[in-house]
Design goal:
This protein is an all-alpha fold. It has one domain. Helix 1 runs antiparallel to helix 2 and helix 1 runs parallel beside helix 3. It is elongated.
Length: 152
């Protein structure tokens, strides 16, 4: 029966290697996302609309990549846990690093959203201050519905 034992060990090693590589890929994606959020924050602070749009497009692409890796990672983790009921020494530090990066990304993302809200409020205030009070209204600005007597 040594052949069956060798196959089981080979399967466990394959699961471990695949899980480790997938965790590394996820860590790399989160690291790239964190760098992207830094660039996005700079663009928000400087008010560079084109850069903000570009960063948002890159963010969407990167989030899809992270989601794709996560779809692979979740079942691999379940197989890993079954194969290694007691933690081995390579995966826990890597898993912690991924979770820490994920937490940093979420925090940075919240901060960028708040900066965007502040910028939006500034722009709204600026637009409101540009309106001249008492100026004639645009002919295209409808005052709303009105009643018309059609009985005659």
């Amino acid at each position: 029966m040594p052949v069956a034992d060798d196959t089981a060990v080979d399967d466990r090693v394959a699961v471990l290697l695949r899980f480790r590589e997938t965790l590394k890929a996820q860590r790399e994606k989160f690291s790239r996302y964190l760098k992207l959020l830094d660039r996005q924050e700079k663009a928000i602070r400087t008010g560079d609309v084109d850069a903000i749009v570009q960063q948002a497009e890159l963010e969407t692409t990167l989030l899809r990549e992270i989601e794709a890796v996560q779809k692979v990672l979740t079942p691999l983790e379940a197989v890993y846990v079954r194969s290694y009921p007691q933690d081995e020494d390579q995966i826990p530090p890597l898993r912690r690093a991924v979770l820490e990066l994920r937490s940093a990304v979420l925090q940075h993302n919240r901060r960028n959203r708040e900066l965007l809200r502040e910028k939006l409020e500034l722009v709204r205030t600026e637009i409101e201050s540009l309106r001249v009070p008492g100026a004639p209204r645009s002919p295209y600005d409808s005052p709303g519905p009105s009643l018309i007597d059609i009985s005659t």
